[in-house]
Amino acid sequence: MNNFLIYPIIIPFFFAIVLIFMQRKVVLQRVITLSALAISAICAFILLLQVEREGIQTVTFGNWPAPFGITMVADSVSSLLVLTTAVLVFFIVWFGFGMIGKAREQHFYYPGILMITTGVSGAFTTGDIFNLFVFFEVLLIASYLLIVLGGERLQLRESFKYILINVISSSLFVITVAFLYSVVGTLNMADISDKIKEINQPGIVTTIAVLFLMVFGLKGAIFPLYFWLPSSYAAAPIPVLALFGALLTKVGIYAITRTYTLFFVHDLSYTHELLMILSVITVVIGCIGALAHFDLKQIIIYNIVIAVGVILFAVAQLNEVALMGAMFYLIHDMIIKAALFMIIGIIIFITGTSNLRKMGGLMQTYPALGWFYLIAAFGLVGIPPLSGFVGKLLIIQGGFAADNIIGTIIIIASSLVVLLSAIRIFIYAFWGGVQPIQQIDRSRYVKLFISAAVLVLLSVAYGVGSEWIMPFMEDAANVLANPSVYVEAVLKGGN
Question: Which of the residue ranges 170-184, 314-328, 391-405, 439-453 would you say has the lowest mean pLDDT?
Fold first, then answer.
């Protein structure tokens, strides 16, 4: 049994329970939360090295071997995502010390954060389709807590929409899993992949594939199921928004990627063509939204929608180059979105507004903030050698290799729109005449800025150091492009 596989799940879960009984001890909650996340990150890093050195790692609970027992699986895809999750949550929590406020900290903010970490890490590593649902519910219940934290009118209104949509999605998830089980007779993902090949019912399997796309599309915010995301995310406090923007939609993307590379490869002309069309439309809708708004939050939120479309377009190509680009870009987007939400949170904190029209001249008073925002914006666009460049380049190569010329051109064009939306923030907020700003504690600003700056530098390192990261990405793409590698490791190598 490889204990490092379950530590990033068990550790945050255990400490989340402990923190429930420390509601008023804010400082102690902070220390314990950061410690739990640091330990989880170390365990995830060790796990990643083990996967690279020894191959896919599995843990089967109980005395039942796969596919009968509950199996957790760590390949290069899941271990990379678990490590990224732990690191990002660490910095988001650090950032939140100066932003969230003690009133919220005393109302189960930190247990909610750790439970989301548990749910996200579990969703990335589970080898059982029903337990994917369970971990989805864990992170969603925690997100319900965090989105209403503070009890403001806007939060309560948007949280109702958020909860309603996710309840419907979860119900459809259970129904779809039951439908799938009635066809293949198993819940183990590797075994499902094997059984689907054996049954001669392509129509039913295609129907199940579309149902899963609806379920995960709601959670990942793919067109036309993205409608809930802009307003619901914008209502959350800035640290929670950074957490949601960096992680939650990525779990939906991961679920689509895993199922559409492992299960549903029997009718590519329909399932993956549908995925490609929806992903391209998602990119277009995201571009329109990013240009239409003058609200800081909404601009970056619609850039989440663009990234969702770009990643899923790569998945739809189903070739190794595109899948490697999808993995590269997915992790880039997790890092850069967290950094950008932190930075715009600081801008809103300084100016007292999220309306671009009411900002200006911040470069004169906060030059470091301006330069770091510009670096993050260039990384978001994919200007070499920053983090977004390698992933998008591989996605474009994969698109052309699959002869999807129009879709690939739209992906290229979307980079210009992303650049325009990002630069518009810089021009409005940092250039021009100085607008009235709030008197803030300089030391508090420095604390906020440092955590955001570290993440920006991490994104730069991710781009500049892509050569050293490439072997992990190649391995991840190989697992996604060749499902037999995953299946054999789980069914024959599980312990």
Answer: 439-453
